[in-house]
Amino acid sequence: MSRRNAEGGSGVTTAAVFGEVLKHFREAAVLTQEGLARKIPCDRSHVARVEAGTRVPQESFAKQCDELLGTGGVLVRLWGRIDWYPQVEHPDWFRRRAEMDAVAVALREYQELVIPGLLQTPGYARALLSQTASGEEVEERVRARLSRQQRFLAEDGPLYVAVLDESCLRHTVGSPAVMRDQCAHLLSVGQRPNIRIQVAPAAVVGIVRPTTSMSLITLPEGEHWVYSESLSRGHFNNDPTLYAHHSRTYDVLRADALSASESAALIGEAMEGYGHDEQARAHLDQEQLQRQRRRQLHRNSPPFPRRRPRPRQQEP
Q: What DSSP designation does 309 have?
């Protein structure tokens, strides 16, 4: 499946193309890899790997290179058009899912416990991915995940409907600050004309939820797929009868869930709650810091001899 980038073009750009363009401008500026690395600053090996197309660079790296090499912003524009997802190692089954997202004309999802990847903020994604990876691997996976969002966030993006179980809002990933920003992001993207976010509240009895998170994917020319995940793999099925069954279940779920405006109100309440949690945590941290300082002052203060009462003399 070919990928259409976020700006609607049909060409496919790759990490190797980004590396070649960077190398062209670096050599035009009469700079070695080590010379450019010193100016950024970073390791020479990082520049070498980006030019070879084996390292996913950060957007800030592209901006710095544009400024240092006088490219007029070419590298940042190219960075934003590249689908970085294939440059990161993923299980084959999820690569297949990502390829479907890259061409889907409509996507309907039900998600429980965690926010769907297409709706995650960088902070939320980083906190989530840090549970199974570390260091630069986390950053590469975060950039890859965000790149998948581009076509859905574009002005002419495909239809994307997400029904979130309320557990997605209540399950804290990272910190209250991360969750507050994530809720704010949901409120923002939910206002786009092609995106609708609804919440299935926990308190409402009788809502029939799917037994697992699920995606209903419509590909060009009307091809339909049902996608779900287990602990270690993804499951794809394009059986028309099965798709019709899950599609009907999903439509009923949407009807029983909160409307988009009601869902936005609940998301706003959750965001406000995480703001209070953050303030409480900051207050607690401040109290702990003050106690530590008092203990430190007490340990560092000079000792003073205690006055002891003089023994009373007995009368003769």
A: P
Cα(239)–Cα(230) distance, integer angstroms: 19
Of the candidates 164, 161, 129, the residue with the CA atom closest to the CA atom of residue 143: 129
Contact 28, 71 (CB under 8 A): no
Give this prediction's pTM. Answer: 0.65
| Contact call for residues 59 and 100 (beta carbons, < 8 A) | no
Contact 210, 110 (CB under 8 A): yes
In this prediction, residues 2-22 reach a mean pLDDT of 59
**Other Cβ atoms within 10 Å of 31 Cβ, number:** 17
pLDDT tens, 114-123? 999 999 999 9
Q: Which DSSP category does 172 fall into?
A: -
DSSP 87: G
What order do you get walking across the sheet with 159-165 strand by strand?
195-200, 159-165, 106-111, 214-219, 223-229, 234-237
Residue 9: predicted pLDDT: 38
Q: How far apart are CA 149 and CA 86, in angstroms?
A: 14
Distance, CA of 54 to CA of 67 (rounded, Å):
23
pLDDT tens track for 272-292: 999 987 666 655 666 667 667
- At 231 the pLDDT is 74
Q: Is-contact 66 18, C-beta < 8 A?
A: no
Higher-confidence position of 17 and 160: 160
Tokens at residue 72, please? 């007029």
> Measured between alpha carbons, how far is 16 from 83 in angstroms, rounded to an integer?
12
Task: Specify the amino acid at residue 122.
Answer: P
For 69-82, how does the pLDDT look when each residue is reduced to its tens digit (9 = 90+)? 999 999 988 888 77
Q: Given phi > 0 = left and psi -120 to 50 = alpha, else beta, which region is 67?
A: alpha
- Strand blocks (E) in the chain: 106-111, 159-165, 195-200, 214-219, 223-229, 234-237
| Separation CA 39–CA 263 (nearest Å) | 48
CB 240 within 8 A of CB 255: no
